[in-house]
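Quick check before the chapter quiz. The format below is the same one you will see on the exam, so make sure you can read both the input and the output lines.
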Amino acid sequence: MKSLKYKIIILPPDHHHLTMRDTFDKGSQYVSSIYELCLKLNYTQEQILIKYRTAKQKNNYYTNYKSETGYGLLKNYLHKDVVVIGPPGSGTIECLLNDLQFYTYEDYNLISRNKSVNLQALDQLHKTLYIADNIKKLEFHMLNKLIYKKNKSKKNLTFDNSYYTKQIVERILNE
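Here is the expected output.
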């Protein structure tokens, strides 16, 4: 892992979390509220990075804060002492399986009207992770280092008895 100067990486949600009725201001408030919380928790502006996947995502969640845009594995981008904050998704799993701190924040007020967001998948993650649905809960989780729920760990993020697509096809063809 790289040794970067950033201590906080904020991952905005994907662009499909917004609906046509949402304003761009609402999207940037999501990022800004996390950024302001990090400043409140004594991180400096130089220690915080907003990491966008695409230019479209940056347009939807635009801020004037330090940011970078592009795809890539987070584990190659971060160091062991970094704190990552973002919505539940592949970044959550990647960070937690690589023993990085990931605080999950999903603003339900922002996504609850959007039918393209799979809320059932979030329900499954709720069984394993603390997922803050507002900025106060995110602050509480960060201050108390609450990532996994009681008796849960990174082992609960994946299935032990899962199959590769090739194995599934072979099993179907061999029946």
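If your answer matched, good. The radius of gyration is 17 Å.
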